[in-house]
Automatic annotation (TrEMBL):
Region (Disordered): 59-78
Claim: Metal-binding is one of the keywords in the record: yes
GO molecular-function terms, A-Z: DNA-3-methyladenine glycosylase activity; metal ion binding
Organism name: Digitaria exilis
Protein name (record): DNA-3-methyladenine glycosylase I
Residues reported to bind Zn(2+): 188, 203, 359, 363
Keyword Thylakoid: no
Length: 380
């Protein structure tokens, strides 16, 4: 219980009874609150006086603020003053509108701005954004016309060029060497004014022509294999190197090459040793094909029933890199042990030896190769 001898404790009273409390719990009552406590104690016996005291206290402590003068209160409610410059500008605009309405004649028609007038409008600044955009559009249209004139994929493009820019088409056709047919502008679209003359001659004289000679078939099969990763122009420029290295593509002679001869060919002619070994291996496999079918010519042309395929492509972008026929030929050659005879390589080989006529129908060589296939001979 509570001990009266505790030094730190003080004596306090609640409702007139002494209560022992520690000194730390005692809080000094504010001066303003002491009169209120006394008034509360007296309120039990004197309610009327209590009301008077509370009213007096509220009057002294919570007095309302004095009201502001009427002119000050009205000024605080008004919006901020408008600057003089803004007021003058608004007045000037209103006066101009009133003057235009007063001077307008009844029934007068306002001027109409047409789209042609807007298009003909030129900005005052030469380097404005609109001028730059028009210049960019004009350049894009000029480049598009040049691309059409450069490639000329279809006859419809040629007609459009004749109406839009016949001179550009004529200039593009003059830079290509003349073909045997004299119809330069209708060549296959991959023959461009910038094509190498050797490649153009190959297109006009050999590509797509039916071949029935075993040595030439072996040569084109070899060139199609080494062409992977390169282009036909670079291969045609080195064609004489391959002919000299492989004895004019004589199958019997190439099949007898020894390992020492292959290493010597690789060093002397700058050929990859793996490529040389693959070509010699193909020569040995062709000898086996000859024993089974009589010749490489009979073996190859049997896949197309001795009649060239004629897909009649109108656009060069439609010419595939491989077909189901090239895949079937490739699988059979791989089964027989030949190398460098993937589906893409075999399709290129088929195009080169005339197994398929992939000239565009607009190209004069398409008709020439078809006529040669019907006659069963070569085209000179």
């Amino acid at each position: 219980m509570c001990n009266s001898n505790v030094k730190s404790a003080g004596v306090a009273q609640i409702d007139g009874r002494p209560v022992l409390q520690p000194a730390g719990n005692r809080v000094a009552a504010p001066e303003a609150a002491r009169p209120l406590k006394k008034s509360l104690q007296k309120s039990l016996s004197m309610p009327a006086s209590f009301d008077n005291n509370v009213a007096a206290t509220a009057t002294t402590t919570c007095a309302p603020p004095r009201p502001a003068p009427e002119n000050t209160r009205a000024a605080s409610l008004l919006p901020p003053a408008t600057p003089a410059s803004v007021t003058a500008r608004a007045t000037k605009v209103a006066a101009e509108k009133t003057r235009s309405k007063a001077t307008r004649k009844p029934g007068a028609v306002l001027p109409v701005v047409t789209f042609a007038a807007l298009e003909a409008f030129e900005p005052a600044a030469a380097g404005s954004i609109a001028a730059a955009q028009r210049e960019h559009v004009a350049q894009a249209q000029a480049q598009r016309k040049m691309r059409i004139a450069h490639y000329g994929r279809t006859a419809s493009f040629s007609r459009v060029e004749g109406r839009v820019g016949a001179t550009a088409t004529a200039a593009a056709g003059d830079s290509v060497p003349a073909s045997p047919t004299g119809q330069d502008e209708k060549r296959c679209s991959f023959i461009t004014p910038y094509s190498d003359p050797l490649y153009v001659a190959y297109h006009d004289e050999e590509w797509g022509v039916p071949v029935h000679n075993d040595e030439l078939l072996f040569e084109m099969l070899t060139l199609s294999g080494v062409q992977v990763g390169a282009d036909w122009t670079s291969i045609l420029k080195r064609r004489h190197v391959y002919r000299e290295a492989f004895s004019g593509f004589d199958v019997d002679a190439v099949a007898k090459y020894t390992e020492k001869q292959m290493a010597s060919l690789s060093a002397d002619f700058g050929l990859d040793l793996g490529t040389v070994r693959g070509i010699v291996n193909n020569a040995c496999r062709i000898l086996e094909v000859r024993r089974d079918f009589g010749s490489l010519d009979k073996y190859v042309w049997a896949f197309v029933n001795n009649k060239p395929l004629s897909p009649s492509y109108k656009y060069s972008r439609k010419i595939p890199v491989k077909t189901s026929k090239s895949e079937s030929i490739s699988k059979d050659m791989v089964r027989r042990g030949l190398r460098f005879v993937g589906p893409t390589v075999i399709h290129s080989f088929m195009q080169a030896v005339g197994l398929t006529n992939d000239h565009l129908v607009s190209c004069p060589r398409h008709r020439a190769c078809s006529s040669a296939a019907a006659a069963g001979g070569r085209v000179n």
